[in-house]
Amino acid sequence: MTDVYNINTSPALTFAKLGMNGDRISVNTSLIKKVNVEQYIFGNGITDTDDIDEALPGGAAGQDIDRLLSTESRIMTVKGNAGITISFSGSGVIRRVLKVARGVEAEVVEVVKGKAPDIALNSTSYILEKNARLKLIRIQMLDKDTLYVDDLRAKLHEDSYLEVVRLDLGSKRSYIASKVSLEGKNSEYKAHGDYLLNGSQRLDINMIAEHIAPDTVSDMRCDGVLLDSASKIFRGVLDFKSGCKGAKGAENEDVILLSEDVDNQSLPIILCGEEDVEGNHGASVGKISDEIIYYLMTRGFDEEAAVRLIIRSKFNNITSQLKNSDLRDVINRQIDGVLS
Fold it and tell me: Which of 34, 43, 175, 296 has the fewest CB atoms within 10 Å distance of its CB?
């Protein structure tokens, strides 16, 4: 049975004809099977946990997508560095809960690959206990026939720190739904996402930083490159709740447009229920500067090579953070394939 689901609905609606308030997807739920998705865990930094003693954080994808999620979750405790690979071989849903123990500093690298034309739904909830620090690197390299939903949720306790670094290269239509709740005083959240879209790829981003406790800090950045007839929408939401005195938040993006046929939309939102807060947003959208291209051409590059070098350098910041050289090589080859 094929059903229609609302997804990535904006918490503050704008003029409907702009088409920025959310999207709808059609999903044949009869095709979703557990055997179509496998999870591989590398390293000894994650151990299975029987249960969790607090409510899970809410998401940004919406209630319709929540209905697609299984009530079953694999619950794990993070106590050190680890890697996770999610591999889809057909329509599937995977759901996990990762709890970072009190005082732990860890890094988790997650790679999503495979193919799922109907839907690949990847949902993870992160709970950071007091003084926990987590660097999360997420790499998405799905087949370009895939419909992908990335549902990231997080709850940050006092003095905890979450850094999310992501790179989105694959899938035909991709929905990033990210909601981080800063519930503990002095908690901090930093996110930097990059994407490279070509052909008719579509990326729909709904990122929410929810400031609940005092003196919390968030910084969300989303940068990317659009080629051919690719399209992207970025909804960045800073939600300052009553009681989050002294909170600071920022949201920024930098988009390079390499075709007249691309479609780029941005919807920065600041919701304010507290007076003593600071929220900022900014965007840079356009073509590569002629001056930069000219400078490189005077150094021996032709125009095409100069553009390729500039774009390639944008992604080096993320790939250089990967300790796995084989994974770096795979990503670099995929980037070069798009730019060639």
Answer: 34
CA dist 184 and 73 (Å) reads 25
Contacts of 302 (CB under 8 A, 6+ apart): none
Map 71-92 to HEC letters.
CCCEEEEECCCEEEEEEECCCE
Half-sphere exposure of 87 (CA within 13 A, CB side): 7
Count CB-CB contacts under 10 A for residue 141: 18
Output the CA angle 44-49-53, nearest 5 degrees: 135
314 in Cβ contact with 194 (< 8 Å): yes
The whole-angstrom separation of Cα 210 and Cα 49 is 27
Neighbours of 149 (CB within 10 A): 26
pTM over 0.90: yes
Nearest to 231 by CA among 207, 205, 269, 270: 205
Q: What is the pLDDT of residues 116-167, one digit of tens each?
A: 988 999 999 999 999 999 999 999 999 999 999 999 999 999 999 999 999 9
What gap in Å lies between CA 208 and CA 236, rounded to an integer? Answer: 6
Give the per-residue SS3 of 297-318: HCCCCCHHHHHHHHHHHHHHHH
Q: Distance between CA 82 and CA 79 in Å, rounded?
A: 9
Residue from 292, 209, 307 nearest 251 by CA: 209
